[in-house]
């Protein structure tokens, strides 16, 4: 038996089969609900039940607090409708989103700009040109069917090969093979199965100025977004804050500076602010220090008219949402994020 699901305020509706989550049902029928991890760990798919009954599978408390659950909030990637329901979800994406496809790819190159980051380039089959919005991610579908998500780090018009920026997570099932810490090591010419495009992290159509916040490899999707903005001569103000511990952890600092140069040459209002949380003595750092969200807020204390896009560590994504909304008065509906959760986050470790 299927249930009818109505989404407010958009008024979009879809049916959910028994055993199907609200998120899967909506996406299957072309209703682009906001999401990230699809694993109850990031909170991107939060919605509120207005009427009807929903049961909720296991999730992490950082993704949905007890207080939120008490006020009828649910995670759509974990929610099953028990009969017809009406939910409030303000983040339904109106812009065109291409449905995902599964494809084989070949590893074209593996380069290592810093000790714990790899830039992986993937070659698609001949005549295949990937279609996605700059900022979206893909999934690797591993041999045992488990998936690992990685944001695409180049804009669609530059995607002769797909570029990914991947940080080593020691003990990690996929990244250990990429960094040679587990057998069989991933190498050039290996074939990997992917699904793309996924997620709802991309610039919304708007003229509002946008803060772009990244930690670590969260720079990847923002790089793609900026490349796309330069390509389309996007007139909005864009401010990129990229944070890392030390200067060498800003593994693509020169690339970010080059994007700033290209944007200025194209007449765009784009600035790049690198931020170090623990600069090393040899960095001789005279730039900004601290956490990206605090530095951005110090520069732009009034965010009522802004959008914000944050990508990278789940801790930064959570904290940035809190301080930008509470202290900068950012409208929470205008905060968009991809938290790079891992199996440890999904397990609540
Ligand atoms: C939407 C999205 C986009 C992402 N984009 C990127 C990106 O562009 N770049 C990037 O670097 N990362 C990205 N990530 C993170 C990425 O998907 C992987 O989670 C990450 O690379 C780790 O994968 P892994 O297989 O190596 O480690 P995992 O197997 O996930 O393990 C991670 C850690 O958890 C530990 N662990 C495993 N299972 C458990 C358990 N049950 N209990 C406790 N601990 C456990 C492991 O020992 C390891 O230390 C993204 C994540 C999401 C959700
Ligand atoms: S997409 Fe539902 S919690 Fe991440």
Quickly list its features:
349 residues, Ubiquitin-like (UB roll), Elongation Factor Tu (Ef-tu), domain 3, Rossmann fold, six-stranded parallel beta sheet, 19 strands, binds flavin-adenine dinucleotide, binds FE2/S2 (inorganic) cluster
CATH-assigned fold name of the largest domain: Rossmann fold
The general outline is globular
In what order do the strands lie side by side in the largest sheet? 11-10-13-8-9-12
Q: Please identify which CATH superfamily of the largest domain we are dealing with.
A: Nucleotide-binding domain of ferredoxin-NADP reductase (FNR) module
Given as residue ranges, the uncertain stretches (5+ residues, pLDDT < 50) are none
Number of β-strand runs = 19
Strand content: 25-35%
Care to describe what's here?
The protein has 349 residues and is an alpha/beta fold. The protein folds into 3 domains: 3-88, Beta-grasp domain (Ubiquitin-like (UB roll), Roll); 101-198, Beta Barrel (Elongation Factor Tu (Ef-tu), domain 3); 210-346, Rossmann fold, CATH 3.40.50.80. 19% of the residues lie in helices and 31% in strands. The protein is built from 8 helices and 19 strands. The strands form 4 sheets. The protein has a 6-stranded antiparallel beta sheet. A 6-stranded parallel beta sheet has the order 17-16-15-14-18-19, sandwiched between helices. Helix 4 packs parallel to helix 5 (253-265) and helix 6 (292-299) runs parallel beside helix 7. The site of FE2/S2 (inorganic) cluster (FES) has 13 residues, from loops.
Question: Topology, please?
Answer:
Elements: E1 3-8, E2 12-16, H1 22-28, E3 46-51, E4 54-56, H2 66-70, E5 73-75, E6 79-81, E7 85-88, E8 101-114, E9 117-123, E10 137-141, E11 147-151, E12 161-167, H3 175-178, E13 191-198, E14 210-215, H4 219-232, E15 238-244, H5 253-265, E16 270-276, E17 288-289, H6 292-299, E18 307-312, H7 314-326, E19 335-339, H8 343-346
Parallel strand pairs: 1-7, 14-15, 14-18, 15-16, 16-17, 18-19
Antiparallel strand pairs: 1-2, 3-5, 3-7, 4-6, 8-9, 8-13, 9-12, 10-11, 10-13
Helix pairs in contact: 4-5, 6-7
The chain binds flavin-adenine dinucleotide and FE2/S2 (inorganic) cluster.
């Amino acid at each position: 038996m299927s249930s009818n699901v109505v989404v407010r305020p958009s008024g979009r509706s879809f049916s959910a089969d028994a055993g199907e989550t609200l998120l899967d049902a909506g996406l299957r029928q072309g209703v682009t609900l906001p999401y990230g991890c699809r694993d109850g760990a990031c909170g991107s798919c939060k919605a509120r039940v207005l009427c009807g009954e929903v049961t909720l599978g296991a999730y992490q408390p950082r993704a949905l607090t007890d207080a939120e659950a008490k006020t009828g909030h649910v995670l759509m990637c974990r929610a099953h409708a028990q009969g017809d329901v009406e939910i409030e979800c303000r983040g339904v994406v109106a812009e065109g989103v291409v449905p995902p496809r599964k494809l084989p790819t070949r590893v074209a190159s593996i380069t290592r700009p810093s000790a714990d980051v790899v830039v992986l380039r993937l070659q698609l089959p001949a005549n295949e040109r990937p279609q996605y919005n700059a900022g979206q991610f893909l999934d690797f579908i591993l041999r045992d069917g488990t998936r690992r998500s990685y944001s695409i780090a180049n804009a669609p018009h530059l995607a002769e090969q797909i570029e990914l920026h991947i940080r080593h997570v020691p003990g990690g099932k996929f990244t250990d093979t990429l960094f040679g810490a587990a057998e069989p090591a991933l190498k050039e010419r290996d074939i990997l199965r992917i699904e793309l495009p996924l997620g709802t992290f991309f610039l919304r159509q708007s003229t509002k100025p946008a803060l772009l916040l990244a930690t670590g490899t969260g720079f990847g999707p923002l790089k793609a977004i900026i490349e796309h903005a330069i390509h389309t001569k996007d007139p909005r103000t864009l401010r990129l804050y990229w944070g890392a511990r030390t200067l060498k952890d800003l593994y693509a600092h020169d690339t970010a500076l080059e994007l700033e140069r290209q944007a200025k040459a194209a007449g765009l209002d784009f600035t790049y602010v690198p931020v170090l949380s623990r600069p090393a003595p040899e960095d001789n750092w005279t730039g900004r220090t601290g956490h990206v969200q605090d530095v951005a807020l110090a520069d732009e204390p009034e965010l009522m008219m802004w959008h914000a896009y944050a990508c990278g560590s789940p801790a930064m994504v959570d904290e940035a949402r809190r301080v930008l909304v509470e202290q900068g008065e950012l409208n929470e509906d205008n905060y968009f994020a991809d938290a790079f959760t891992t199996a440890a986050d999904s397990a609540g470790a």
